[in-house]
Amino acid sequence: MRVAIFTGSSDGADQRWHEAATQVTRYLVRQGAGIVYGGASVGLMGAVADIAIEEGAEIVGVIPRSLFSEEVPHTGLTELIEVDSMHERKAVMAQRADAFVALPGGIGTLEEIFEVWTWQHLGLHDKPVAFYDIHGYWTPLLRALDGMVDAGFLSLKVRGSLVVADTPQALWAGLGQAER
User: Fold this and answer.
1) Pfam families, alphabetically (predicted)?
2) Which of 123, 120, 93 is nearest to 108 (CA)?
3) Angle between helical axes of 168-178 and 15-30 (0-180°, round to 10)
4) Strand pairing partners for 26?
5) Which CATH class for the 2-172 domain?
6) Strand, coil or helix: what is 35?
7) pTM for the whole thing?
8) Mind listing the pLDDT tens digit for each residue in 131-155?
9) Are 167 and 173 in contact (CB under 8 A)?
10) Within 13 Å and on the Cβ side, how many CA atoms surround 33?
11) How far, CA to CA in Å, does 111 sit from each of 7, 8, 47, 53, 167?
12) DSSP state at residue 13
């Protein structure tokens, strides 16, 4: 199984995010998962890659050439795929992954996880989509999604298709339960 991890190219304002990213990555690869991610050597993306490499796991990075100066491609990956655009990055990541997980991140992380969730809803894939809600990072967003259900703009079925977990073990179990 390959898990696509969407996360930030910065470390965030709290060391807990770095610790959470390394902890969940270590757990996933020790379960036998390969990692597909954004290809950067900086921020939480770099932390994910470093742990996967340290653990001897397969790690595939996908990075648009236009981001080389900001995200600085990681040089120690199993495979680094250079693409021309963010659209191509997401398509390659989706093709290479069997599941998708959002760790703490910003607008890019949101855009990536929402796109693959939308693709799932539209029937373009049947792979699990998850939010790793460590230290309640995603809780405000998840409440907003619940508000969308209450307002009639998001079905309970689509909302329920998201895996939400706050421990590596619960995430792994949720990804397995979400497989079809």
Assistant:
1) Lysine_decarbox
2) 93
3) 50
4) none
5) alpha beta
6) strand
7) 0.94
8) 999 999 999 999 999 999 999 999 9
9) no
10) 29
11) 11, 12, 21, 26, 23
12) S
